[in-house]
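Changelog-adjacent note: as of this version, every example in the card shows the full chain rather than a window. The one below runs 500 residues end to end.
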Amino acid sequence: MNQPIAALAVSAGLLLPGALAAAPPETGETRTIRLIQDDAQEYMISKVYELKYLKANDVAPFVLGVVKRNNTQSTVNRINYRAGDEQLLTVSCPVRMMPYVDDLIAKLDRPARVAGGGEDPIRGTGITRNLYPARFRSARVMVDVMTGTGINGGADSFVGYDAETNLIYWKDDANKSNDLLKYLAWLDRPVPMVNLAFTVYEVRESTLRDLGIDYLAWRNGPGLNLLQAGFNAMSLDSAGSAALSAASGGFGAFFIAPQFDASFIRVLQQNGKATIANTASLTVPNSESASYSVGFSPQSQAIFKRNNDQLQVGISGVGMKGGIEQPESGPGAENPLLNSPEPPPPLALTVTAPRINFRSSADAKTGLIPDQAANYNHSVQALVTFRYLIRTADVVERNSYGAELAEVSTVTGDCNLLSGGEKLLSAWSKESDVEQRIGIPFLSDIPVLGSLFSTTTVNREKSYFFITAKTMLVHPESAPAEYSGQLKAFSELIPQTAER
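Full-length structure tokens:
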């Protein structure tokens, strides 16, 4: 053997250095050496095992754990051949690992029983199938949470849901299946919901006093005959008839039925008090961005006058102006809230992004807050954070023509509210005292006599506005209020025990 070939054989491990030294001398014949290079790869082999005492589902996890540690390409498959009542196991692993698999299966698959009456000599984690009917939550939402946490990360596991029946079904080993039932009980809890009750209180007091003589109405009315009455008074022929007419005419019966227009005399006082309480209630779930709205727009009748002073019955509303003509205005100068074809509702409520945080002692084992209906509003309370918009439009005055004066208020804000009590969210008040005098210049400034040459209008108003909110936790299993044929106050719909 020549030196290059011998060196190559030694490096490949085919010859030992001592063997090379003991080799016979070259005789001139030619030898051929073939080298097979396999990069130390494993040669795989497959085998089918027929189990006599165990189930393939129970043995597979043990065998799979052994062969996977030796080579990640190893596989273990289980076959449940019911027609032949056979339990088969197929194993693919490296050749040098197969004897160990034979020994493992021989030691596992033997006629033995576990103390306590078990059916198998080992209690494996065999693959099981199970289902769970969702009670409070959507099956899709819970499946998304389960898959996101790696529940179905194994090769033999699967989890899915049926949208029509709201069922969750899965396939996994027995231990994980039991854990899955525990996790689902934690996830399948009632969606946090609260009932938000808003009450808007409005109190308005007004006093209107109109006293004096309207100079414009007097001048265009009886004042036109003043000059003619002066000439008749200086005539001797008509003095007697004028005096008789004055004694028996319209002036003589002025306080009974005047025969001329006496509307220039302004003697009017109007006092009024309006007390309004609007209540709106919404039941909302926990949400980060959703908006919930409620509106109340009843219709009531009102008597008003047209331009021809004829009485007519119509629908009361903020947009009704009675016999007063609508003023003309340019584009963009109209108030869409008051001048729209339909009046706004007396009460409109919008709640946005309600976030409900429970406040109670958590369970020591699970760390969860009790979610039974009996605990709500008693041992379990909640802190509710939300954004609200309240708009009210109420009629507070009507004049002689039936035109309505409305109070329109809009309040927005954010609130943190603890369930179980009523809180004041907003309050404002307004007081006005207006005095206006219209008459003849200089003469209207004379004390006492000024009322003969002018009209004084005094308008005093006081308005008070309060908004309160009350929250109550709502459970899906709570019995609803009985509305059948009964009219109940709002205070009767809330449990009295929750107010303590």
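Structural remarks: The chain has a mean pLDDT of 72.
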